[in-house]
Amino acid sequence: MSSDFYTYLYNKSMICDFKNNKIAELRAENQISQRQLAKFIGTSQANLSRWEKGIVEPSIIECWKLADFFNVSIDLLCGRKED
What we know:
By secondary structure, the chain is mostly helical. It has one domain: lambda repressor-like DNA-binding domains (434 Repressor (Amino-terminal Domain), Orthogonal Bundle). Helix content is about 60%, strand content about 0%. The chain has helices at about 5-10, 25-30, 35-40, 45-55, 60-70, 75-80.
């Protein structure tokens, strides 16, 4: 695909903006600590904290694990917005 297509997607906010992720919200709804969730995902609590704050993004595999854990789509997890 051309770079124009990716520019279009970015400008239309159709790509994942992980700064709006729902990890902390889902974690609170399920009454699970960062430490507990991090252990399940196979990462550190500090790393999970960085994901929740949008400082760094989890890999696609980690996103799959999170989505599976919370039984949600990756789109919902990462706060994806569509027109």
